[in-house]
């Protein structure tokens, strides 16, 4: 039997008559860094987490009334019965409906032009009734629309089961377990592509599954056949299909290098053909129109450029189509029969734009224009447009003060028609809000965009503020509308977003300036954003809380170590805070694939740099603010022990200016609760903590 480290197991009441802290009860004197929490099979681990849950529940109990008011206020503001947009494919029109009291949607379809024949074909709410957790990974319709395949995760660990059924009323049949989420059909209606993991849960291989499908007979599968195996531990595989439906695309990519293989969609047994061998530091993606491939890449073009290649000459030279520019990053390309939709990001405005490029038979652009923006800053993206020849685009728009709306844009007439708008109920409407983009000056003189939204009638005065940040992987924080946020804004606080380096808000250069050896820029930018909000009169410097999730938890955790008194409170949700130890363990999920994001600690200089900012490695007896830490037992991306260690070690320091709370969801994964009502209730709990910390709510310890 493995020897147990000594620990204090006293359950006696403390001097003040309260139960002892879980930290004092479970502390092991020979393990001051709490690494023993990494042993999931040790019964003390779950006992410690449950004890911390009881402690946080007891502290939060006086806020229960506020939690319920926030939760029910949120429900009253939104349309609970949700009808998704209808999308017509070749044979049927598809949409989802979520009942007012349901956690999950039901998917419906009807033959095109025959709405009276609508039938449900996948009831996720019913499938979730017997599960404590359910997450839909991917859904894929066979090209003839006779069969549906999908993946489900019922634990939160992102390991999926593959199901298939004949549409609309066939019984679901489970075909494979323990696979990744992605699916794609070949155009033969008999072959399904999926991905599998290696021992570290890295998607490392793409497989084709030959199916035996006949109506009225249970579907069967032959043995899967591996199509592509990726040996490099820094690369992940993915799969897709061009909108032209001519090519299956098998991707393999690290954080800074990519490679594509192509397979004819009508001949999935053909050997994959490498489109262009990988080159270190070169990222590329492939789109297709008959006769031509389109390559979005950063070879000798750090902000990306778009080239084309003759389909009949796959080894030929790439011909320029959209040049590299210093002032914008090309983010994506979608090919249609008539031309291309290009998504680009303006570096100066930190604003996304969508360009329409129509091409004639000689590849001369007969039209090249940006679609109009409803306001700036805002989010704008191409929605679901499945038909290759469609000249009617579906667009999605939103901002911090504009609820999501979907439009149809006619290319020929330029007419724009709103087809759906998110309904908002209650006393605080979008036109009662105000949003501003301000600019902070970072430690090195760089200008950092900061977005701030508040009630319009409170603009012009310093407000209690929640500052949100992420700052990693080149992810952008384009404006998004939140119904739950209205509950906070209505109570007199402001919500701000720091668009720090390491994210992609100002394009590829912005990302590169906040990763690897430049990572500290992210933390300094976050603090600069906080100071700018105070200096420019938007925020009360004594009442600013910070929020970060996952890599955003790293951002907030490192910022607290640099300036613990800058915030009165912080919420860290599934936070990545044990960076050095995680990166030193290649057996954990994600680690090897993250070397080009954070650095490989086997390289001494990189190890020293990671050590210099890793939140858990830089704790000291500083006046940390009140902390609400959240983790998930089944999280395969940021293990539960990272927030648990942070909770234990900050509690032991004893220098925090407020409570240090840990809540671990024992039924969820990285994304938290799967059902929408439980997720909304969880959000109300953390919002109650934030309102308390900002002085906008009191803890009623008398229980009234």
Structure description:
The protein is of the alpha+beta class and 704 residues long. 19% of the residues lie in helices and 34% in strands. The chain contains 13 helices and 38 strands. The chain has an eight-stranded mixed beta sheet with strand order 31-32-34-33-35-36-37-38, with helices on both faces. Strand 24 (339-346) and strand 25 (351-359) form a beta hairpin. The protein is globular. Mean pLDDT is 94; it is low at 1-16.
How does the SSE layout of this entry go?
Elements: H1 22-26, H2 43-60, H3 64-77, E1 82-83, E2 87-88, E3 92-98, E4 106-111, E5 119-123, H4 124-128, E6 135-141, E7 147-153, E8 160-166, E9 173-179, E10 183-185, E11 191-197, E12 203-214, E13 217-221, E14 225-229, E15 236-241, E16 247-253, E17 258-264, E18 273-274, E19 284-289, E20 292-297, E21 305-310, E22 319-322, E23 328-336, E24 339-346, E25 351-359, E26 365-370, E27 379-382, E28 392-398, E29 405-410, E30 416-421, E31 433-441, E32 447-455, E33 463-468, H5 483-489, E34 494-498, H6 508-512, H7 520-535, E35 539-549, H8 551-562, E36 569-573, H9 579-583, H10 595-598, H11 604-613, E37 626-632, H12 641-653, E38 660-665, H13 676-693
Helix pairs in contact: 3-5, 3-13, 7-8
């Amino acid at each position: 039997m493995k020897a147990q480290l000594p620990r204090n197991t006293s359950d006696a009441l403390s001097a003040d008559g309260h139960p002892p802290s879980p930290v004092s009860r479970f502390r092991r004197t020979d393990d001051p860094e709490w690494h023993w929490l990494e042993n999931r099979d040790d019964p003390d681990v779950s006992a410690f987490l449950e004890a911390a849950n009881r402690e946080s529940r007891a502290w939060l109990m006086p806020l229960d009334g506020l939690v319920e008011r926030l939760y029910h206020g949120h429900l009253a503001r939104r349309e609970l019965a949700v009808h998704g947009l209808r999308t017509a494919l070749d044979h049927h029109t598809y949409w989802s409906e979520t009942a007012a009291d349901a956690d999950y949607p039901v998917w419906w379809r009807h033959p095109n032009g025959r709405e009276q024949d609508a039938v449900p074909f996948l009831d996720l709410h019913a499938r979730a009734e017997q599960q404590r957790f359910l997450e839909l990974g991917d859904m894929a319709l066979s090209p003839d629309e006779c069969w549906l395949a999908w993946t489900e995760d019922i634990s939160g660990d992102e390991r999926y089961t593959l199901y298939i059924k004949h549409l609309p009323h066939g019984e679901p049949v489970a075909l494979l377990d323990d696979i990744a989420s992605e699916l794609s059909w070949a155009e033969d209606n008999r072959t399904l592509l999926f991905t599998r993991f290696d021992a570290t849960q890295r998607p490392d291989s793409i497989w084709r599954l030959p199916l035996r499908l006949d109506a009225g007979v249970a579907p069967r599968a032959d043995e899967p056949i591996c199509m592509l195996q990726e040996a490099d531990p820094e690369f992940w595989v993915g799969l897709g299909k061009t909108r032209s439906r001519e090519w299956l695309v098998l991707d393999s990519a690290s954080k800074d290098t990519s490679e594509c293989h192509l397979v004819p969609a009508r001949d999935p047994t053909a050997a994959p053909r490498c489109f262009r061998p990988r080159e270190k530091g070169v990222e590329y993606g492939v789109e297709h129109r008959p006769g031509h491939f389109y390559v979005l890449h950063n070879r000798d073009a750090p902000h990306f450029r778009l080239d084309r290649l003759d389909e009949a000459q796959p080894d030929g030279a790439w011909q320029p189509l959209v040049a590299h520019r210093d002032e914008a990053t090309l983010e994506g390309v979608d090919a249609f029969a008539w031309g291309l939709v290009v998504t680009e990001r303006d570096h100066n405005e930190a604003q996304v734009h969508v360009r329409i490029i129509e091409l004639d038979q000689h590849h001369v652009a007969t039209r090249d224009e940006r679609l109009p923006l409803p306001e700036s800053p805002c989010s704008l993206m191409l929605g679901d447009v499945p038909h290759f020849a469609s000249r009617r685009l579906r667009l999605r728009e939103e901002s911090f003060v504009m609820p999501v709306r979907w439009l149809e844009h006619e290319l020929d007439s330029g007419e724009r028609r709103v087809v759906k708008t998110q309904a908002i109920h209650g006393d605080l409407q979008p036109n009662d809000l105000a949003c501003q983009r301000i600019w902070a000056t970072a430690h090195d003189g760089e200008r950092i965009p900061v977005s701030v939204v508040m009630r319009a009638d409170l603009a012009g005065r310093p407000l209690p503020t929640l500052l949100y940040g992420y700052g990693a992987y080149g992810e952008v924080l384009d404006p998004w509308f939140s119904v739950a946020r209205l509950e906070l804004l209505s109570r007199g606080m402001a919500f701000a977003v720091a668009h720090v380096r390491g994210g992609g808000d100002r394009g590829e250069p912005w990302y590169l300036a906040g990763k690897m050896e430049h990572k500290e820029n992210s933390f300094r930018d976050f603090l600069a954003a906080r100071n700018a909000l105070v200096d420019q009169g938007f925020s009360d410097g004594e009442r600013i809380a910070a929020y970060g999730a996952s890599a955003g938890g790293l951002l907030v955790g490192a910022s607290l170590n640099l300036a613990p008194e800058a915030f009165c409170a912080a919420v860290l949700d599934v936070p990545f805070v044990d960076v050095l130890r995680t990166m030193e363990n290649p057996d954990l999920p994600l680690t090897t694939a993250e070397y080009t994001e954070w650095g490989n600690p086997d390289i001494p200089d990189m190890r020293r740099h990671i050590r210099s900012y890793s939140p858990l490695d830089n704790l000291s007896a500083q006046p940390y603010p009140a902390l609400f830490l959240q983790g998930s037992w089944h999280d395969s991306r940021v293990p539960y022990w990272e927030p648990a260690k942070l909770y234990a070690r900050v509690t032991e320091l004893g220098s925090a200016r407020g409570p240090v709370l840990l809540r671990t969801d024992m039924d969820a994964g990285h994304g938290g609760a799967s059902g929408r009502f439980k997720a909304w209730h969880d959000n109300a709990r953390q919002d109650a903590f934030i309102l308390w910390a900002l002085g906008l709510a009191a803890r009623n310890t008398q229980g009234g």
